[in-house]
Amino acid sequence: MEMETRVIVDDGAHNAFTDLVFWHGCFWLAYVSSPSHFASRKSRVVLLRSDDAHDWRKTKEFAAAGQDIRDPKLGMIGGQLFLFALLNRKFDPQPYATIVARSDDGLVWGEFEAMKPEGWLLGRPILVGEAWYAAAHRIDQGRAVLMKSSTGLDWEITSVIHEAHEGHDERADETAVHLLEDGGMLAVTRLEAGSGIFGSSRAGTLVSVSASPFSTWTALAKSSLTRLDGPNVFGVGARVFAVGRRQTRVSGPFQGQGSAFGKKRTALFLVQEHSGELVHLTDFPSSGDCSYAGVAIAAGKVVISYYSNDPRRDHPWMVGMFMPTRILVAVLDSSNFTKQEGER
């Protein structure tokens, strides 16, 4: 798949966890700058702006009063730009709360506010009718839910997407949702299993669907092709795609899905419409610690932000977590996404 890829931040820091929107005629990109992948009081959320997805300028930095801040998500709600971020206290990250800041122009921002209900880690919001929906998860419960809000500040649980059951340790983690052309909703969930650094054969990606009013969910497929860390799901026409982290080799005692010693890529997948199965389409130039993509579609282009170590050195994920990472933007023509499999 043809793409133009550009490094837009490479300053020696560990730059990670991107999100991207097109708002008020500009691209807005948020990411975290920190000493490493792990918790640091020095972490900052950085907001960039671009007119053309090529030349970027910094508009704002956000800190969290001495706490580790990570995983920013951008939303366009009620005419304002919202920045959601997670707070974390543990060195090996276990975020415990979502905070949110708002702006009328993307330049002047209010203070962070606590999102309600407390304890939930909010994903990327989408508009359905006059309400906003977002997936949220709790690490301590292994549970992912769909939430609804009219303000972007106060949310309520609409339904349960997935939760761990006794005797089964497949725990829901990060989840992304997408509104389908028929009015239904699709969710892509990172499934954790086991507790070791070597990953697990039971880890993977859950694809689920729900019909309006989204009160119940049906699991279409659990894919073992990848554990889609940092998932983003989006549509071009009637086709649905997902982007997230892929492990290049999943075999042997030390290379279970999600192994810290595995080699990783930021990858693009087709989500099969009826079966929910994932089809690997391509990898973006990436290695080591990578993924957490943002997606914005504008002027016939699909623009995808992500982070990675230097792809010329294929470090294991664990090594890459302690090394500098760069922020990249890939620009693809939207016609690439409307071709059927096997077409050139």
Report the end-to-end length measured between terminal Cα atoms: 8 Å
CATH topology of one domain: Tachylectin-2, Chain A
Major beta-sheet overview: 5 strands, antiparallel
Tally of DSSP β-strands: 25
Rg, alpha carbons: 18 Å
Number of helical stretches of at least 4 residues? 1
| Average of pLDDT | 95
Structural class: mainly beta
Our estimate of the beta-strand percent is over 45%
Low-confidence sequence ranges: none
Question: What labels would you give this structure?
Answer:
344 residues, mainly beta, 1 helix, 1% helix
Structure write-up:
The protein has 344 residues and is mainly beta. The protein has one helix at residues 317-320, and strands at residues 4-9, 14-23, 26-34, 44-50, 57-62, 68-77, 80-88, 97-103, 113-114, 121-122, 126-128, 131-138, 143-149, 156-163, 171-179, 185-192, 204-210, 218-223, 232-236, 239-247, 264-271, 278-283, 291-298, 301-308, 326-333. Strands 10, 11, 12, 13 and 14 form a five-stranded antiparallel beta sheet that branches. The mean pLDDT is 95.
Please specify the SSE layout and strand pairing.
Layout: E1 4-9, E2 14-23, E3 26-34, E4 44-50, E5 57-62, E6 68-77, E7 80-88, E8 97-103, E9 113-114, E10 121-122, E11 126-128, E12 131-138, E13 143-149, E14 156-163, E15 171-179, E16 185-192, E17 204-210, E18 218-223, E19 232-236, E20 239-247, E21 264-271, E22 278-283, E23 291-298, E24 301-308, H1 317-320, E25 326-333
Antiparallel strand pairs: 1-25, 2-3, 3-4, 4-5, 6-7, 7-8, 8-9, 10-12, 11-12, 12-13, 13-14, 15-16, 16-17, 17-18, 19-20, 20-21, 21-22, 23-24, 24-25
